[in-house]
Amino acid sequence: MKKQKSLIILLALSFLFPLAVHAEAVTEIDLNSGAARSDTFVSVNELFETGQGTYQLIMYGLKEENKDALLQALSEAYDAQQEEALTIRDLAFADAEKFNTYPADERTPGEDSGLCWAASASNMLWMSGWAPRLVNPDAGSIFTSEDDVFAYYYDHFSNGGSDVSAGIDWFFMGEYYASPDHGGSAILVDPANSDNGLRKEFVSTFVQDHYDLTVDPTGIDVLMDCDWDSASPAVFQASLGSLMLGEIAISEHSVTCAGFIIDPQADSWQNRYKALIIINSDNDGIPSIDPDTSSREERRADKESRPNSITVYNITLSADINGTPFWQLLGYDSYEPELIYALNRLPLYDEGLVAQYTETEGNRSVSTTLDLTPFTIFTTDRTEVIRDLYRKKPEDFTVTEFEADEAINLSYFITNKGYQPLMQDSGLCVSWQVVKDSDQSVIAEGIYYPDTPLFPRMNIGYMIHLNQTDGAIQTWKPGSYTVYLDLNPDRAVTESYYLNNTRSIFRFTINGEEEEQKPIIDPDDRRPVPNTAHH
């Protein structure tokens, strides 16, 4: 087992930016386990001993032949107190590599420098078992590795950033839409062929889950599903960000989160989480060949020849100048503290999930039809419509507690994921109900017809005045209420996917002495049938 340490000291910059730049040391280990690369992976949930005590490794993406060697390496090299990364290399790790690790400039012409999201998606799809069961239409054969999946993304997207969830939806459904709250500069090179999804009927949006750790740092608990013997095994992507002037900025880099290390004897939940284990498409070297004179095949071979690795970063719970919590990666090569912005979860391959989320009504062709889905929903006391949420957050306008005589307005957004516009005379309707939770009575209901065009790959906001008729406020009794909203329930507008018109639900209260509560019914049991006769 080979070990080496390299220390990088940025002396010149340290005089100019003494608070921003720090020396970094990285421990590197070549595992040399002898395990072979394949599409079969296992997870581990075991204790290992170090000179500092007993820790627990929960991780996926391993082989039966290398997990014991990894535990031994951690026993010898892991230090829960150090602020430097521990990189462990092994041929059998899955690690999709980018050719360029920096933005395009005179030093390294950009080829795939912005496709970290595609590399993360490739690792996730390969290790979770989805990609090994699908045919690469460009090659006419089954995908052979995570690098093969990444090459498929590279062939279809321009160099730029995106949302990994949108990238996974494109892989399955042929539908590419960069979520408005994440943005993205990558462009689908062949949108006319976007209906060539590899499993078009499977609405993969439903099986992906997003956890914003800057809103709820306890969401890190979901990483327990890195143990594939758990009830809901999964693979994970992590979005990394940094601070800007002391405040949490947007996410900047995508990595695959392979697992984490915990202290089973910790005295608090914050201290329980010791380290995050990531697979980083940027950390295993720079091009060894000239990108200007080499062929695409040579550049791909260069990427695939680089060592596959995982990197262990100790983490700590911190906060920005506003008190917003975040998990910080210690020892990450950055001028600002690097933080774990969010986690995205994709379950392991499961035919039961495919059956549950198979589209049966839509034509599954986003290039020729609309594809509508609710984006967000909240109640507010403001009377004007918020047409977009660019540089704004729903919580800035959300009100959940009202007085009996106050106006209660519902703001919601509709996203058009398709490539055709929704015109204002399309016949699209939104069916809504307000239910009083104490007795399940319907307090108000109606049909709303959006009156604003909705162009492709955009979203727009609408508003329903829940307790008002002709401007007059209806006084509602104190208590808790639930709003149900259904988009295009009568299928008046043809869509590529109807399944993702998922019911939106939001709850609010009216102050005062509440009535005795009864259990809230299952939202799926209350499906209002719209009355469109008056349209």
Would you kindly provide a brief summary of this structure?
The chain is of the alpha+beta class and 535 residues long. The chain is built from 8 helices and 24 strands. It folds into 2 domains: 355 residues, no CATH class; 154 residues, Immunoglobulins (Immunoglobulin-like), CATH 2.60.40.10.
Structure description:
By secondary structure, this protein is an alpha+beta fold. It has two domains: 355 residues, no CATH class; 154 residues, Immunoglobulin-like (Sandwich). 13% of the residues lie in helices and 31% in strands. It contains eight helices and 24 strands. The strands form five sheets. Strands 9-10-11-12-13-14 form a six-stranded antiparallel beta barrel. A hairpin with a 2-residue loop joins β3 and β4. α3 crosses α5.
